[in-house]
Amino acid sequence: EPVWYVYGVVRAQEAPPTAELAGADDRRTLAAVTDGGLTAVVSRVPAAEFAEDELRLHLNDMDWVETVARDHEHVLDSICRRTTVIPMRLCTVYKTEGGVREMLLRESDTLLEALDHLDGKTEWGAKVFFERPRESRAATREPASGERGSGTSYMDAQRRQRDRARQLDEQVEAAVAAIHEKLDSLSEESTLNPPQRPESSGHPGEMVLNGAYLVEREREPEFHEEARALQSSFADHGIELVLTGPWPAYNFLPGRIGAAW
User: Which long-range contacts (CB under 8 A, 24 or more apart) does 172-179 make?
Assistant: First the structure.
């Protein structure tokens, strides 16, 4: 039998008709499971891919994961445009419809409290990248034998380079702190996630801030304007501020909501 894939949970009275929601995977038909004043937006998916043991194998296939993640994001974006949603983690799957209902009832208080907290708010990401000047990069590596001068002059040059690199690091730390402090002041909540490596971020620069900010919709214009001002202020320092979103509020959910398997 197919298993039940859960995208997100909304208040039952605010659940949009599933026919109006769109995913990226045309093979999936969205449906709704309602209990305890809550509605889970779901689809039936093949057990050959999503049953517990099979899912573990498929999670090692990055092409498969990317396809599922794209569909997951599309459905949640479609819901977010219509109402407040509690996003489930990627590949939240239950064996039966009864398992979905049991989750809704078991976690009803927590889910309703989270929906109240997220009403009228969206999550925005702020990623700050730093492009280190070439001479500063040189100070952090061992010089080739041909680059070494003689005696005192060589040691003095190396010390000056290290001093400049240290000053630059201190300037970047101060800039990152100022950016986070300002964006946090315009948010209801914020959290700092570990920086991503360039191969994950898709940006050649060093990520020095990976923040998430829960922003009231009425303050979004001010939040965006301040982000642009911060970018302008620090652009000459080799710093780039990139806003992403709006996202479902993954970073501001309590505990392990909706954990399956």
Answer: 172/130, 172/208, 172/237, 172/239, 175/128, 175/234, 175/237, 175/239, 176/128, 176/208, 176/209, 178/230, 179/126, 179/128, 179/209, 179/230, 179/234, 179/241
CA–CA dist 41, 87 (Å, integer): 10
Do 180 and 211 form a contact (C-beta atoms < 8 A)? yes
Residue that wins the pLDDT comparison between 245 and 197? 245
- Measured distance CA(69)–CA(82) in Å, rounded: 20
According to DSSP, the residues that pair with 9 across neighbouring strands are: 40, 86
Q: CA distances (Å), 169 to each of 134, 176, 206, in order? A: 14, 11, 12
- The pTM assigned to this predicted structure is 0.79
Angle of helix 220-234 relative to helix 151-185, nearest 10 degrees, comes to 170
Contact 134, 243 (CB under 8 A): no
Average pLDDT over every residue of 146-159: 63
Coil, helix or strand at residue 105 = helix
Rounded Cα distance between 45 and 7, Å, is 12
SS3 string, 143-163, reads: CCHHHCCCHHHHHHHHHHHHH
Q: Is the peptide bond before 246 cis (omega within 30 degrees of 0)?
A: yes
- Is residue 47 within 8 Å of residue 54, measured between CB atoms? yes
Element (H, E) at 43: strand 38-45
Q: Cα–Cα distance between 102 and 163 in angstroms, integer?
A: 61
pLDDT in tens, 63-88: 999 999 999 999 999 999 899 999 99
Say if residues 85 and 10 touch (Cβ distance below 8 Å): yes
